[in-house]
């Protein structure tokens, strides 16, 4: 009888370790720095075509939204450590908060909150492949729609085969002014 109790006790300890160890591993803090690229694109039916700076993702934009004009309005790049979010000022008084939370192999988990003024209009958690691209559209802006693309990159790793490149636009500094972009 005593050996049965000892066996049950050992089994309970093993079960506790099996359940607790993955939780402890998952709770380890992420020590990665993530590069975040945010583009704002004005899509409209003004027959002006595709802004050259958007050529790498032009096909995706045209398949998803079906407008005749796509113009880059802003391009911003920043770096954030896991658990330390950053804010991007967008056209029309919008602010996008991006909070990288974890990097698991080739996947980056982030929380996104889009504000219109002080009011949150979208809150979501996403998992993007490293170098992956998330495209969000729908907000009315000027004569069309504002499209936001978000790309997250762990800088120490090369882009995966077949990944979508972002526009080859390097800003002098994060800015909302298209005139400050260097083609």
Q: What is the number of strand segments? A: 11
Helix content class: 10-25%
Number of helices: 2
Work out the strand percent.
over 45%
Shape: globular
Could you state the order of secondary-structure elements as H and E?
Answer: HEEHEEEEEEEEE
Q: How is the biggest beta sheet arranged?
A: 5 strands, mixed
Number of domains: 2
The helix/strand class is: alpha+beta
Q: Taking strands numbered 1, 2, ... along the chain, how are they ordered across the largest sheet?
A: 2-3-1-9-8
Flag low-confidence runs: 5-28, 164-183
What's the alpha carbon Rg, rounded to whole Å? Answer: 22 Å
Q: Overall mean pLDDT score?
A: 76
Report, as a whole number of angstroms, the end-to-end distance. 79 Å
Task: Outline the secondary-structure elements.
Layout: H1 2-26, E1 33-44, E2 49-50, H2 55-65, E3 69-81, E4 86-90, E5 94-104, E6 107-116, E7 119-129, E8 133-141, E9 144-153, E10 170-171, E11 181-182
Parallel strand pairs: 2-3
Antiparallel strand pairs: 1-3, 1-9, 4-5, 5-6, 6-7, 8-9, 10-11
